[in-house]
């Protein structure tokens, strides 16, 4: 009897890994064994098969039986059940598994027919992601890169699983920094209507045209204001006075603040667009200020907020803490609120907002803020502000220069994000131009599109994103545009090129009236590519669980390499038969779709040509 006749189709939605584990559970159960260790892992050596099961070893001790005896019994059941071409017991009790060609082909065909490429849809949750966090009147800089890139990738990964995501930028648009800036603007632009004796006569809305200055001026004015307030107590007192007036609703200052916020957002959104980063909400610290006074009063009344040396704190230490946990400071002795105050009020606002009502809130913020978020989360739970809501800090490491230290400009200043991106785009333009010139010298007749600005931007941005996302989130990484834009090695352009290369093969096939057909798996390179494609759903699931886009970056790079080996070993257009050609076209189509989908989850677009 043929294997595809005796083997039942896998349940709807079951991944290849899921089906294999189910077969293992059935075999363990048939042997009277507990199924807790009935799991397959990738084989340590490909010549042994695609997978191996090591469950006999941990069971041997608890059952008092030799592990090889247990492994042999399981192997016998697996051979009888189908699904494997080879089942062998090796070593101390390992079960090596070579999947059947029919099983691989069936899963490949199902994955090809699935628009989601096999990604398993999870029970739908409303998940809020907080990333970006820029301040108004300041440009985005290198410190914002990881938050934006990682946050956007996590948003896409979670949406791919069927979750309902809400992304918020959480602007730094309130507090003393605004009073400092308003004071400096009053010095440099005293004739603005918002500073008139009757501020209610100020324009209902101010913009860049009516103000007479824009983002470049704000970027110049804020450092002047900060330096002056640091050196001059009188200037600091003035800034505090103007901050109080703004927060009290002074109509002129409110109009100016709104204009500053709008000007800043307009420029920052250009950087968001360059990175293809999406936000559902553009809220800021200002949006929760009205909640803070009643929140602090309530915490005092409930005995959660207590006075300590004139300040208001919340004790967040717990009995099982391995290290001392300092209290959360919510208000200084002068009554001034802090970032923690705003963050706690923001949790309260998000949970109470029926339009948001998240089951999870994920903060994609620098790992150096881990203590801050642990304190805020504990305070929120103690106050009952987030009942049933999972609060998560997805921290990340720093972007470093080639010296291994946090990335700086050549002058030692903080690098602006736009400059970083433009630098990578310039490097991509140079590299693409050199490749086009080399191809032209060889008579390849390279399409002039390789010189296009659009392509340079796609490759440059992909290089930056992939370099960031291929690094383990909590680790730092070295920002090296020269290496990032290479078409060799573990880079974004390399994976982009693999996608484009497959697209070129499929286009040539279509021009020859060749179409994909039923998938057959025979050659080892076909097995390897189909099996690697089948791993995609479990990789996405793991990346979502661990909040680790680097797992997908690693995967697409490995898949691109696997396709390259397939293409060398298995002629597609020149296959030995029409059936083999049609099958390999289908396998190539599957590989391209999975690569494209994986790159999309990283926020990386694929050009049509390179």
Sequence-ordered SSE layout with sheet pairings:
Elements: H1 3-6, H2 16-30, E1 41-42, E2 51-53, H3 56-63, H4 67-81, E3 84-90, E4 94-99, H5 101-113, E5 126-131, H6 142-160, E6 164-168, H7 176-188, H8 208-211, H9 215-231, H10 233-247, H11 251-274, H12 292-301, E7 305-308, E8 311-314, E9 328-331, H13 339-352, E10 360-364, H14 370-383, E11 390-393, E12 399-400, H15 417-441, H16 453-469, E13 477-478, H17 481-484, H18 492-511, H19 524-534, H20 536-546, H21 550-569, H22 578-601
Parallel strand pairs: 5-6, 5-10, 10-11, 12-13
Antiparallel strand pairs: 1-2, 2-4, 3-4, 7-8, 8-9
Helix pairs in contact: 2-4, 3-4, 5-19, 5-22, 7-9, 7-10, 9-10, 10-11, 13-14, 15-16, 18-21, 18-22, 19-21, 19-22, 20-21, 21-22
Family: Belongs to the class-I aminoacyl-tRNA synthetase family.
EC number: 6.1.1.19
Domain DALR anticodon binding: 495-610
Structure notes:
With 610 residues, this protein is an alpha/beta fold. Among the domains are: 3-99, Arginyl tRNA synthetase N-terminal domain (Gyrase A, domain 2, 2-Layer Sandwich), CATH 3.30.1360.70; 175-278, no CATH class. 52% of the residues lie in helices and 9% in strands. The strands form four sheets. A four-stranded antiparallel sheet has the order 1-2-4-3. A hairpin with a 2-residue loop joins strand 7 and strand 8 (311-314). The radius of gyration is 29 Å and the shape is globular. The two termini are 49 Å apart. The model is unreliable at 1-12 and 442-446 (pLDDT under 50).
């Amino acid at each position: 009897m043929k294997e595809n006749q005796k083997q039942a189709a896998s349940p709807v939605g079951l991944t290849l890994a899921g089906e294999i584990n189910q077969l293992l559970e059935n075999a363990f159960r048939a042997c009277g064994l507990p199924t807790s260790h009935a799991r397959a892992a990738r084989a340590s050596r490909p010549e042994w098969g695609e997978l191996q099961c090591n469950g006999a070893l941990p069971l041997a001790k608890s059952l008092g039986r030799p592990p090889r005896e247990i492994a042999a019994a399981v192997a016998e059941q697996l051979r009888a059940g189908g699904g494997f071409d080879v089942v062998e017991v090796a070593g101390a009790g390992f079960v090596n598994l070579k999947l059947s060609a029919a099983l691989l082909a069936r899963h490949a065909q199902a994955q090809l027919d699935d628009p989601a490429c096999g990604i398993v849809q999870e029970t739908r949750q409303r998940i809020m992601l907080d990333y970006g966090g820029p301040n108004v009147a300041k440009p985005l800089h290198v410190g914002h890169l990881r938050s934006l890139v990682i946050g956007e990738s996590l948003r896409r990964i979670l949406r791919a699983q069927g979750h309902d995501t809400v992304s918020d930028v959480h602007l730094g648009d309130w507090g003393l920094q605004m009073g400092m800036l308003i004071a400096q603007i009053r010095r440099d632009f005293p004739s603005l209507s918002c500073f008139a004796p009757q501020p209610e006569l100020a324009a209902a809305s101010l913009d860049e045209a009516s103000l007479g200055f824009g983002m470049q001026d704000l970027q110049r004015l804020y450092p002047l204001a900060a330096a002056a307030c640091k050196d001059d107590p009188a200037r600091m007192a003035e800034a505090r006075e103007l901050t109080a007036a703004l927060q009290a609703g002074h109509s002129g200052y409110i109009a100016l603040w709104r204009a500053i916020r709008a000007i800043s957002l307009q420029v920052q959104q250009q950087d968001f667009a360059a990175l293809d980063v999406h936000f559902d909400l553009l809220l800021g610290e200002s949006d929760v200020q009205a909640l803070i006074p009643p929140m602090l009063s309530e915490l005092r009344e409930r005995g959660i907020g207590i006075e300590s040396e004139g300040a208001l704190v919340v004790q967040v230490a717990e009995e099982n803490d391995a290290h001392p946990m300092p209290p959360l400071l919510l208000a200084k002795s002068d009554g001034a609120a802090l970032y923690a105050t705003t963050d706690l009020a923001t949790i309260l606002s998000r949970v109470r907002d029926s339009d948001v009502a998240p089951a999870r809130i994920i903060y994609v913020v620098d790992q150096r803020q881990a203590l801050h978020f642990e304190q805020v989360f504990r305070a929120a739970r103690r106050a009952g502000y987030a009942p049933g809501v999972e609060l998560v800090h997805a921290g990340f490491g720093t972007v470093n220069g080639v010296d291994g230290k946090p990335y700086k400009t050549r002058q030692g200043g903080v690098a602006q994000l736009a400059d970083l991106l433009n630098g990578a785009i310039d490097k991509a333009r140079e590299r693409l131009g050199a490749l086009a010139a080399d191809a032209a010298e060889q008579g390849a007749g390279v399409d002039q599109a390789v010189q296009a600005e659009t392509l340079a931007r796609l490759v440059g941005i992909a290089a930056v994103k992939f370099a960031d996302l291929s690094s383990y989130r909590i680790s730092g990484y070295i920002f090296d545009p020269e290496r990032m834009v290479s078409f060799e090695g573990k880079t974004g352009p390399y994976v982009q090129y693999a996608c484009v290369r497959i697209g070129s093969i499929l286009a040539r096939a279509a021009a020859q009236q060749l179409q994909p057909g039923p998938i057959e798996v025979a050659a080892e390179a076909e097995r390897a590519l189909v099996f690697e494609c089948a791993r995609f759903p479990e990789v996405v699931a793991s990346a979502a669980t661990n909040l680790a886009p680097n797992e997908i970056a690693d995967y697409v790079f490995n898949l691109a390499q696997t396709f390259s080996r397939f293409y060398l070993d298995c002629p597609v257009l020149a296959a030995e038969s029409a059936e083999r050609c049609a099958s390999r076209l289908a396998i190539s189509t599957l590989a391209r779709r999975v690569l494209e989908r994986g790159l999309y989850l990283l926020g990386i677009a694929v050009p049509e040509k390179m």
